[in-house]
Design brief:
This protein is mainly alpha-helical. The chain has two domains: 69 residues, no CATH class; 321 residues, Methane Monooxygenase Hydroxylase, Chain G, domain 1 (Up-down Bundle), CATH 1.20.58. The chain is 66% helix and 0% strand. It is built from 22 helices and no strands. Helix 2 packs antiparallel against helix 3, helix 7 packs antiparallel against helix 8 and helix 7 packs across helix 9. The protein is globular. The termini are far apart.
């Protein structure tokens, strides 16, 4: 009410609002607070503030009010509009910068969840107080989190300050190093993008890991767009580069599954009671990079998976360019040398192999956490994941050749 008398988007009491959401969970925020937030949003057109501050406030309010608005879904649950990930409509010239952009965000997301785990273990936070993990469970999370973030920190040249060997002390160093490199705006962004539905401790980890996966998917989409564009210009060297970056990104994201597996099953099943309507089947970034690999089969396009992301489905139906088509066309016109074809095919096979293994890991984790429970996005849960885990990545490079290429890669390593 005090802010409404001044109405400057730059001074909105974000911290107070976020504290309330953390205290009770988004699902249980009082009607009085929801009405106040809705009033703020309604008055935004009358507020004279710089556009970036107004835009950030409007986006935050849309995320905070998704449940009473009846718009609650996977995208709003993860606060993805606030993260401003690389998008399918970004100019192709921005593709080379996608990795550094996603690396920076990934470092911030992981450091934030490590900081939360440390604060909870040290008794320095009351956020999400229910069902805290054991000290052994926390130590395992910290170790896995540092393992997952290290390649990113190496690319960002932020590993010089990491000298500890103890997992807990090393996690503290990671938080210090990353925080020292962040801007005020980046810190603000981290403070706005965890709005859990309940107060179970593990939901913080769940949200951050899913945001990290979405960041990876956005990077994959950018790299595949770059590969398709490069191949259309017969620049196989650049196409192979983009594919290798994509395969590396997915491979380095795999440890996130191990970190996610440290969630307490009881905690997960408790907070997911309030996430109905938000499901990973609604992930736009995942469907974008899936559809960039090849044209999905008709049954897949007409399934709930693509109906849940209508804008991506529209791109598919419009006949967007795919890597499969670009590869097939390049081979057909005979403009590539045998060496170029081999390099391209190997890179595609390696990417396909990594993705197939990623799906298998996702299925196994979901089977342990969900058991026979239904999914939250009109799916049959693990039965759905089981049915899609072997869908071919490409038509031009099948699973058998992908596995063979992966074996060769491992042998070379």
């Amino acid at each position: 009410m005090s802010w409404l008398r001044r109405r400057d988007a730059r001074t909105f009491p974000y911290d107070a609002v976020v504290r309330e959401y953390h205290a009770v969970g988004k699902h249980f925020v009082s009607d009085e607070i929801l009405r106040l937030l809705a009033r703020v949003r309604a008055e935004l057109p009358e507020i004279q503030s710089p556009w970036p501050a107004l835009h950030r406030l409007a986006t935050f309010l849309d995320v905070a009010l998704d449940k009473p608005d009846g718009r609650y879904d996977y995208r709003s649950y993860l606060a993805l509009p606030l993260l401003e990930l690389p998008a399918a409509d970004d100019p192709i010239e921005q593709v080379p910068f996608a990795r550094s952009r996603c690396d920076r965000l990934s470092a911030h997301l992981m450091a934030d969840v490590l900081a939360f785990e440390l604060a909870a273990a040290d008794g320095q936070t009351t956020r999400l107080p229910h069902m805290r993990p054991s000290s052994a469970g926390t130590a395992k999370r910290l170790r896995l989190g540092v393992r997952a973030i290290r390649p990113t920190l190496e690319r960002l040249t932020l590993v010089g300050g990491l000298t500890e060997s103890d997992p807990v002390d090393l996690a503290r160093q990671v938080c210090t190093v990353v925080d020292a490199d962040m801007s005020v705006l980046e810190r603000r962004l981290m403070g706005l993008t965890v709005l859990p539905v309940y107060t179970a401790h593990d939901e913080y980890l769940f949200l951050r890991v899913l945001q990290l996966f979405e960041t990876t998917f956005a990077l994959l989409s950018a790299q595949l767009r770059g590969a398709v564009n490069a191949l259309a210009r017969r620049d196989t060297h650049r196409a192979v580069h983009y594919l290798r970056v994509a395969a590396t990104a997915m491979r380095q994201a795999a440890p996130l599954f191990s970190m996610l597996a440290t969630m307490q099953v009881e905690a997960f099943r408790t907070f997911r009671t309030y996430t109905d309507g938000a499901s990973a089947i609604q992930s736009r970034n995942y469907k974008i990079f899936e559809a960039l690999c090849r044209q999905p089969d008709d049954a897949r396009v007409d399934s709930e998976a693509f109906y849940s992301v209508p804008e991506v489905r529209a791109r598919v139906l419009a006949g967007q360019a795919t890597l499969d088509d670009a590869y097939r066309e390049a081979i057909a016109v005979g403009e590539l040398s045998d060496q170029q074809v081999d390099a391209l095919r190997t890179a595609m096979a390696d990417f396909a192999s990594v993705w197939l293994r990623w799906r298998q890991t996702h299925y196994r984790l979901a089977a342990r956490m969900l058991a026979d429970l239904r999914g939250t996005g009109s799916t049959d849960g693990t039965a759905y994941l089981a049915s899609v885990r072997t869908i071919p990545v490409f038509h031009t490079v099948d699973a058998e050749s992908a596995d063979s290429a992966a074996d060769e890669t491992v042998a070379r390593s």
